[in-house]
Amino acid sequence: VNPAWSRITGYTAQETLGLAAPYPWRPGGDEGRDAGRLADGAFPAEYEFTLQRADGRAVSVHAVTSRIDDSEGAVRAFVTSVRDVTVRAAAERALAQRAVELEFANQQLESLNKELSNANELRADLMSMLSHEINQPITVVHGLASILTETWDELTDMERAKYAGTIGKAS
């Protein structure tokens, strides 16, 4: 047991040596999962788990377990190296949470963008309709006013009154 193990776990070498499962740093009794990983024969075996320190705090660790065989090839022991990855694990959780938040924000932006696009189409349709509704009477007024001014002397009073009345109705 090296000093780093004691710093990570809070257990002294004397408290650690000679212990058998269930280990106090694995209060969930999940050593069985590790045994399954080790039994499949893939070495070194790498895995992560949450270790409970002697003071009760949780520590995320990355473990690498190697097998030590005797001269006959039978398993004699396992050696495990553990590295504290609490900061990395917290950063990964924060990153995953931020990704969820960003996805939600993107969905909201897409929805708002669609609403704005629909509102813009409505505005364009309304402007087109208003333009037509306003331009038509203006065109009539302009055309009849042009006829009146260009042909005033040639028109009878009745024709002038008719054109002026039409201009009044169109405006």
Question: Could you list some keywords that capture this structure?
Answer:
3 strands; three-stranded antiparallel β-sheet; rod-shaped; alpha+beta; single chain; 171 residues
Description of the molecule:
Helix content is 58%, strand content 18%. By secondary structure, the protein is α+β, with helices and mostly antiparallel strands. It has a three-stranded antiparallel beta sheet, sandwiched between helices. A hairpin with a 5-residue loop joins strand 2 and strand 3 (75-84).
Summarize the structure.
This protein is of the alpha+beta class and 171 residues long.
The low-confidence parts are none
Summarize the main sheet: 3 strands, antiparallel
- Envelope shape: rod-shaped
Share of helical residues: 55-70%
Helix/strand-derived class?
alpha+beta
Number of strands: 3
- The total count of helices amounts to 5
Summarize model confidence as the mean pLDDT.
87
Oligomeric description of these chains:
single chain
Which range does the strand content fall in? 15-25%
- Span between N and C termini? 99 Å
What string gives the helices and strands in order?
Answer: HHHEEEHH
Radius of gyration: 43 Å
What spatial order of strands do you see in the largest sheet? Answer: 1-2-3
Topology of this structure?
Layout: H1 3-9, H2 13-16, H3 31-39, E1 45-52, E2 58-69, E3 75-84, H4 86-151, H5 157-170
Antiparallel strand pairs: 1-2, 2-3
